[in-house]
Write a structure and sequence with these properties.
Number of helices: 4
Distance between the termini: 35 Å
Oligomer: single chain
Order of helices and strands: EEEEHEHHEH
Radius of gyration: 16 Å
Strand order of the largest sheet: 1-2-3-4-5-6
Low-confidence stretches: none
Largest sheet: 6 strands, mixed
Helix content: 10-25%
Number of strands: 6
Structural class: alpha/beta
Length: 126
């Protein structure tokens, strides 16, 4: 039987998930550092940009893992909610040449041209 004994209190905020993928837990959001398994100090990609105000924390953990002056080769945004893009401006100020990628359908939300629709409560989804 599979079990998970880990809790937020017993799991480090920055930890390896599998070879080539580390996670940074920041309050209630996770973001990921992906890198070639054979080159743990080599090129890497940041997946999502976390909460507003967390750019320094993200950069510090990136330096811890990949060394100083090693920006990601790209930032991939899974979607535009505040907890996934909040530190993007701060990260791009530090890493101005890093490209940012997102699905084209997310662009109106990422650029502020549209807002996400309000969530539908489960009892109203019928």
């Amino acid at each position: 039987m599979l079990t998970n004994e880990a809790t937020r209190a017993s799991t480090p905020a920055f930890t390896a998930v599998v070879p080539g993928l580390s996670v940074l837990r920041d309050v209630f959001v996770n973001l990921y550092y992906a890198f070639p398994e054979a080159q743990p100090q080599g090129p890497w990609v940041l997946i999502d940009a976390g909460l507003p105000g967390s750019a320094d924390k993200i950069k510090a953990h990136a330096e811890e893992q990949f060394g100083p002056d090693t920006p990601p080769t790209a930032i991939i945004l899974t979607h535009g909610h505040f907890d996934h893009v909040g530190a993007l401006d701060g990260l791009l100020a530090a890493w101005p040449n890093v490209p940012v990628y997102a699905h084209p359908l997310e662009l109106p939300y990422l650029t502020g041209r549209s807002s996400y629709p309000p969530p539908t409560p489960p009892w109203a989804a019928a």
